[in-house]
Each structure stands twice: as structure tokens, then as C-alpha cells.
Amino acid sequence: MTPLKNLCNILGSCSGLVLLSINGILCVANPLTKKFRFLHYSIWGNETWIGFAVDQIDRATQRFKIVFISEQLEVSNPYETTYQFRINTGESWSLSKTTITCRASNLKKGKNSKPVYVNGDLHWLRKDGSIVAFNPETEKARLIQSQFNRKPGKLLLCTGDNRLTLISATDAVISVYALETDGQWILVRWIKNEVVHQSLPLLYWNVQAYDGKCLLVRMMSLVGSVIHRYDLRANKWRVLGSIPTWCDADRDFFLFKPSWSSVIGLLDQEHSSHL
């Protein structure tokens, strides 16, 4: 009998830890220390609903939290959506007493729809451009509006310079907005989308990643994908690399910063019976 192939996807990356889905089961791991923790919770089909947060307790110790957001339409008012939150710190799941009800709009799902953790809050992007924010420590939730985004285009929620960032992209221009501490959005950069017109014919393109210093855009054609990098300091585009069609790398991009910190709840291979 041929053994089943393990299906492994990266769901999140935060402060040197990665959140994995292995055959639909969650796993938190540090690739450097090779310590990990399996969480017995099946998330088939709900990958983009899982938020991953890592906090630095002191200079040498980290703690992680995983938050599962669920949404449901209000029976009494079909024009409203209510969100609930389940939290896991490595031992078990607990349902937060916090709920938030707002105008009906589904969470944005699929590629480039991963939640973002910054300044203590997890953020989920909705299809109408608004953002659900939840603090795993205080268990407070709020809705962040983004009224500037009303034109059709591609959206990417990310972080840059330690600020929540929302990128709105069209065939003509890529606009980078950052959320200020007063709750107002400001336009950080307006980038001419030159690579779309240089890469014809295209099957599809999308903004993949942003970190405040560079922006990655993927152009997909029949022969594969080309990754273009825009340097915000030099104000220039260049080709970063390519991905052939046979390569199974059609996934989200993640920023990974290695860490040797001790993580509460992670185990090494000798103390785990899962491997």
C-alpha cells in the first residue's frame, strides 16, 4: 500500500514561529530550534479564519496564541453579521465572551487573505474593505473602516513599519495606505503599476507581499509565474525570480524572522509522541 502524502500548508508566520496545517491539523513550530506543538483541531476549508499571534514576554521567552474567528448572519436582521472568537494557547480552546456585530459582509477568503497580527491585534479583511480587529490578550474587538477603497481592484492586508497596511491595486496604480494611531488612514505611497503592462499576455496577477521596504507582485502566465520586486527607497522595479508551472508553490508569501527564544508550550521531538 502506498502511504498517503502529508498535506502541509503554511498558515502564518510571526516572530520566528510558523503555523502549519498538516493533514488539516494545526501545528506551531520553530524551524530553528525544531520544537513544535500539535493542536488537535481540524481546520479543513477554514484556513483563512485562523489568526496567529506571538508575543515576547521577556528577552528570551515567547508565548503564542491562535484565534479562530467564526461568522454568522443574524436571524433577526439579515443585514448584520456577528463574529465570535475561539482562543488556544497550546493547551485547549476557549470561547471568548466577546462578540462583535456589524453590517453584513463576508470575510475575504482564499489566497492573499491571511490574517495580520500587529500591535497586539489580529486583523481579518472583509469583502467590503472593512477589517475585524481582535486583541487576544484583552479580548476586545472592533471594526476598522476603510472608506477610501470603493473602486474595484485587488486588496492585500499586511504590515509595514509596524503599522497595519492596506494595499489597493489596479492595472494602473498600486496605492499603499497605513493606519495611524488615531484610527485614520494615510496614503503612504502611490506606485505606477508598470509591470502589468510589461508582462502581457497574462492569465492573472496579484500583489503578494509588503514589508514597508519592498513590494512583491506576481505575474502568472501559461509558462509559470514571475515575481517582481518594487524597492520603495530606490523607486524601481526589478525581477526577483520565477516559479515554473510544475512547481507546487502557488501559495501565500510570508515574512520570516528567525528567533532562538524559548516558547511556552512547544516541545522537542523527544518529548512528543506525534512524530
Features:
single chain, about 280 residues, mainly beta, 5-stranded mixed sheet, 4-stranded antiparallel sheet, 1 helix, 21 strands, about 0% helix
Q: pLDDT under 50 segments (min length 5)? A: none
Count the helices. How many?
1
The helical percent reads under 10%
Q: From the alpha carbons, calculate the radius of gyration and give it in angstroms.
A: 19 Å
Global shape? globular
**Tell me about the biggest sheet?**
5 strands, mixed
Range of strand content: over 45%
Order of helices and strands: EEEEEEEEEEEEEEEEHEEEEE
Average the pLDDT over all residues and give the rounded result: 88
Structural class: mainly beta
Q: What is the number of E strands?
A: 21
Could you tell me how far the N terminus lies from the C terminus, measured between alpha carbons in angstroms?
Answer: 20 Å
What's a concise summary of this model?
By secondary structure, the protein is mainly beta. It is 2% helix and 54% strand.
Task: Give the topology.
Layout: E1 8-14, E2 17-22, E3 25-30, E4 35-42, E5 50-58, E6 61-73, E7 80-88, E8 93-103, E9 116-118, E10 121-125, E11 131-134, E12 141-144, E13 154-160, E14 163-169, E15 173-179, E16 185-192, H1 194-198, E17 204-210, E18 214-221, E19 224-231, E20 236-244, E21 262-263
Parallel strand pairs: 6-21
Antiparallel strand pairs: 1-2, 2-3, 3-4, 5-6, 6-7, 7-8, 9-10, 10-11, 11-12, 13-14, 14-15, 15-16, 17-18, 18-19, 19-20
